[in-house]
Amino acid sequence: MSAAATAPPIRKADIEAKLRELQGGVSTRARAAETTALRVGIGVAIAIVVVAFLVGRRKGRSRTTIVEIRRI
To answer: How many angstroms separate the Cα of 45 from the Cα of each of 35, 40, 41, 55, 66?
Structure first.
């Protein structure tokens, strides 16, 4: 006899239980990936702000005019 002939029939409850089991594993991994993505996004945003600050600071120094005032 083949394995298909001796296997018990698949019920609706069996399918639902297996889907719930799979969904639980997927949602756990999704939460972990979401947390990691959030941290990476925050890091990138901070890096962009720091780079923009440093570039602006450098540009400001090169454009600054020094005015010397002397008393007579």
So the answer is: 15, 9, 6, 15, 34
Q: What are phi and psi of 37, to 5 degrees?
A: -65, -40
Which is more confident, 68 or 37? 37
Q: How far apart are CA 33 and CA 66, in angstroms?
A: 52
CA 19, 24, 29, 35 torsion: positive or negative?
positive
Q: Tell me the pTM.
A: 0.51
Amino acid code (one letter) for 16: E
